[in-house]
Amino acid sequence: MKIKNIYYVIIAIFTVFYSCSSITGDKVLNFLFDGVPDTDTLKSVVDQNVKSDSSLQPVQNTNKLIKPIIFLHEPYKERMCESCHDIKASYKKLMNLPELCYECHDDFQSTYKNLHYPVESGECNSCHHPHQAKLTKLLLKSIRELCAECHDLNELLNGDIHSGIDDAECTECHNPHGSNENSLLR
Ligand code: HEC
Ligand code: HEC
Ligand code: HEC
Ligand code: HEC
Ligand code: HEC
Fold it and tell me: What is the distance between the alpha carbons of residues 105 and 12, in angstroms, rounded to a whole number?
């Protein structure tokens, strides 16, 4: 599998280039339609999700075994902390998101014409935990709960577009990352 191969190559690359971290500039967008959050909401959701999570608190003994009661991100499970962190500098991230994720995963920027705003701005952490999660795909919450953090579901579901979708998963029609269609449609 392609990702497994690059996974090991990446480690070597990081040891050489770990000091060259890239910085994503703040991106400002105007939101032109209803049901869409402003950037302050976006930022506070990300901050809350990361800060309120006990598994993101500093780890004292990194050799401690992790109980397999949750879904683990493969490089975390394999204890390859240094693929994402400078372990000699208080676990500082090697680079910002989304670049860090794109070291191993396909770059959504080159996959899709239109990107979902939190993906474009590198807020992968608003939906995924970088280490582990109780849900598959490292999701922090159920899909509807995630969407509801930034979108007004009452407003959306009472509008014409979504009338009658009942319990359909939002991701049945929308790709959470990006799309070549409008409105992130699959
Ligand atoms: C796939 C990349 C990845 C791997 C592998 C990984 N982490 Fe992380 N880790 C992150 C990200 C992203 C954050 C969130 C940091 C942020 O947003 O500033 C984080 C946060 C942390 C924090 C909190 C740091 C802070 O600034 O608050 C600690 C401590 C930590 N990780 C330890 C570890 C340990 C120990 C391992 C190995 C068992 C590990 N990580 C593996 C990506 C990773
Ligand atoms: C708005 C929420 C959201 C954001 C933000 C988000 N994801 Fe996802 N991601 C999902 C969901 C939901 C899935 C489950 C698969 C699906 O339903 O398409 C997923 C699945 C994945 C997968 C598993 C492969 C797959 O497509 O099923 C990877 C890898 C991934 N995301 C990486 C990322 C990266 C990297 C970022 C940041 C650049 C990111 N995601 C941002 C919601 C999100
Ligand atoms: C060092 C390489 C590496 C980095 C960096 C990395 N990942 Fe992964 N990730 C993997 C591997 C390996 C898998 C397992 C892939 C597979 O099974 O196809 C994976 C799987 C995933 C999955 C799917 C989990 C599931 O349950 O299927 C998600 C979501 C994901 N990664 C998100 C992220 C996000 C978000 C980032 C950035 C914070 C990131 N990854 C950074 C290597 C990496
Ligand atoms: C962290 C905040 C955040 C989360 C979580 C989030 N979104 Fe969004 N979403 C946004 C922002 C901000 C925009 C507006 C972006 C723009 O104007 O291009 C947006 C725009 C959209 C759009 C319209 C895109 C377009 O091009 O017209 C759709 C559809 C969408 N989101 C669906 C979802 C779904 C489905 C989920 C849950 C899987 C979700 N969003 C979760 C922040 C979020
Ligand atoms: C049955 C398919 C379907 C499902 C399920 C669905 N949507 Fe949509 N959604 C659409 C279509 C179609 C559009 C409008 C496309 C257009 O007119 O460009 C849309 C538009 C949107 C927009 C753009 C804002 C707007 O009002 O134009 C957002 C945000 C959005 N959906 C979020 C969600 C969320 C959150 C969920 C889950 C609660 C969801 N959608 C479930 C089909 C769906």
Answer: 17
- How close is the Cα of 176 to the center of ligand 2, in Å? 6
Q: How far is CA 46 from the centre of its chain?
A: 10
Once rounded to an integer, what is the mean pLDDT over residues 61-81?
Answer: 78
Task: Render pLDDT for 163-174 as a digit per residue (tens, 0 to 9).
Answer: 989 999 999 999
Ligand 5 site-directed mutation target among 117, 141, 158, 173, most atoms within 8 Å of CB: 173
CA neighbor of 185 nearest in space, from 169, 171, 165, 168: 171
Ligand 1 site residues (CB inside 6 A) read 50, 56, 58-59, 62, 73, 75-76, 79-81, 83-85, 91, 93, 125, 130-131
- pLDDT, one tens digit per residue, over 37-55 is 555 665 566 566 656 665 5
CA–CA separation, 109 and 136 (whole Å): 24
